[in-house]
Amino acid sequence: MHNKKRVFSGIQPTGKITIGNYLGAIKNWVAMQQQYDCLFCIVDLHSLTSNFNPQELQENIRYNIALYIAAGLNPDNVTIFRQSKVSEHSELTWILSCFTQMGWLNRMTQFKDKAGKNKETANLGLYSYPVLMAADILLYNANIVPVGEDQKQHIELTRDIAISFNKKVGKEIFTIPDAVIDSKAKRIMSLKDASKKMSKSDPSDISRINMSDNEELIRKKIRKAKTDDAPCISYNPIDRPEISNLIDIYSCFTEIDVNKVVKNFELMKNSEFKEALADVIIKKICPIHQKTIQIMEDKEYLEEITKNGTMKAKAIAEKNIGIVKQIIGIS
Ligand code: AQP
Questions:
Q1: What is the pLDDT of residues 268-284, one digit of tens each?
Q2: What are 13-22's pLDDT values in tens digits?
Q3: Is the C-beta atom of 131 inside 6 A of ligand 1?
Q4: Which of 70, 153, 278, 313 is the 20 to 30 A CA-CA neighbour of 219?
């Protein structure tokens, strides 16, 4: 057993990481790395459920690993690795899928959102995505899973699968994980449509700020971000979702409470607030992007980080899948 509580989380390399992913996930990971035994994964198997582009995928994987480090994760403290390099993730997925009720999967809102009207033509991987996610977490007996609110339902499903498995085999094989959701950055919304979350795979690039965007592009996107016609700045996510989303982003980057942000800007025009917002985003993310590029240039260093990470993850995964196989009679 490990002494420190274990944390597992990951991001799909479906595109360049957005400020939604950064504020909803990576920023919290950085804050957790001392206190917990952390595993942070590039979930490349998950990304096969959407848009197939091998060359882009390779590039995103490298960029995202480098960004984890540039954003402040210390590879000496945390395990950084690629999901596809630890084959036990796929193996456990199959086993867990035999312990997962179809009705549970039918309730998953992410599948409904992503498949939309194309449920019949959507791939099976997209449907069973949450089982792979459960395998990611349960394989390491993680206690804590830091995620944005969009993933909460998947963590609840992971708990259901673990509880049901443990009950069936009559032994506490899997640790029941808890989701940890940052209350402020739980859901950063699209800059074009505040009813949709900001997503790295949204077809519209101006709906999001990518961590790789340059200063000029960030200013342009923030200036173009949709807002209402009200002449003042106020926070009301129900009646004024667009400006409230921008206030949330400002608050997350500066750590200034939302009410204080409103007080500081209430007499200003939207355009003035937007300039100030662009400034704080640029100040935070442009240095991270520059560092990411530097790290990417050092191919040997990147390879060494992922090799070490894979080794550490694989050691835990092999041991735990062995226990699972034994209890279900296929060892
Ligand atoms: N808009 C968001 N606000 C807060 N947190 C977010 N996360 C994603 N979008 C937001 C959190 O980022 C982590 C990684 O997500 P993922 O890549 O595994 O999948 P996702 O949740 O589906 O993220 P995207 O950006 O929307 O990816 P695509 O476009 O490929 O589907 C998770 O912790 C997530 O909660």
A1: 999 999 999 999 999 99
A2: 999 899 999 9
A3: no
A4: 70
